Records
---
Amino acid sequence: MNVKDSEFKSLLQAHKKIAVYGLSPDPGKASHYVPKYMQDQGWDVVGVYPKLHDTGFKIYQTLKEVPAEYRKFINVFRRSDHLPEVMDEILELDGVEVVWIQLGIEHEEAEARAEKAGIKVVSNRCLIIEHKKWF
């Protein structure tokens, strides 16, 4: 992680559009209720999920399909062992500024690759917790 906790508020203020990689159709999963919380707080959220679903979010099946303005801030909900492949996809895109990896998820090597590419990386942090702390 190359972002200090004290930078979280300004990072979120600067990025009001978020692409959520792994946005689940199950409202009981964090990968659904965390994006819903951010949407309810005024962020414009789209999801990436292999199967299309209608749960109040625009869903794309791949990151490449997501409009560029949403790909500046990518919130990742995938198991740690999947992060290298997720990062491969992210690094193929232009314009990614922030990769926020949710609480309980981290992969040092994958994060280092993103950091080397000039991307800000936050890992093992929950958007709900940080939003409530800073706003």
---
Amino acid sequence: MISVLKHRISVKSLSDRKEPEPLVIPIRDGTPAATPSFMRWTRCDVSRAVTHHWLPLVFGACLLFFVGVEYTLAMVPPSSQPFDLGFAATRPLHRLLSSSPDINTLLAFLNTVFVGMQTVYILWAWLVEGRPRATISVIFMFTCRGILGYSTQLPLPEEYLGSGADFPVGNVSFFLFFSGHVAGSVIASLDMRRMQRLKLALLFDTLNILQVVRLLSTRGHYTIDLAAGLGTGVLFDMLAGKYEESKMAVKRVGVVKGMQSKAK
């Protein structure tokens, strides 16, 4: 009985406690305003930020670094080809493919097979399994790619190594920005992860990395095209998911209204 009474007293005392009032500072017209949050930081908050939020801190340091790089870097003159770090990193492989057209053709053929694998999987998910999200993502993605690719038409790199076995088949024109090869691979991989096909997703991710190296080595895409392809694959997968959710919500509202009309 005594312990129960003590518990009630402690609960009451806790409930009667008031939260500390936030510090306020007056502004010019005399109206009080909340104190800026940084003025309430403690040493514990700072140490917690370092240990638990290190990633934003790293990106913040990168922001400061690249601001300095951007404003001190000499720009590429109009008469020169664009500078691409990916091209510089893959220069030895580019020389190998330049001197061995058969190897270049073989890699182009294998890359085309990989693109076919992506296409088959995405269509299978829609037509056989009845899950259209990946197909919707690809439709959104290629529409955006067409608009952006036509709006800013980048020059083809001078060292480009084309192949008749590449996709699109033959040495036809194509948009450089952004890489539909990479974006399609990401969309397929994300769908595999949703279905817990983790080993297949890992295989596609590995082949996608090899595809990136091959595209850089043949100068078929700039590095920025490949990075944008990665980001847009994730973006349009999310947008397709939002589209599906909106349609399902509209369908649920229609079902509810139908049930209500029948009840009347």
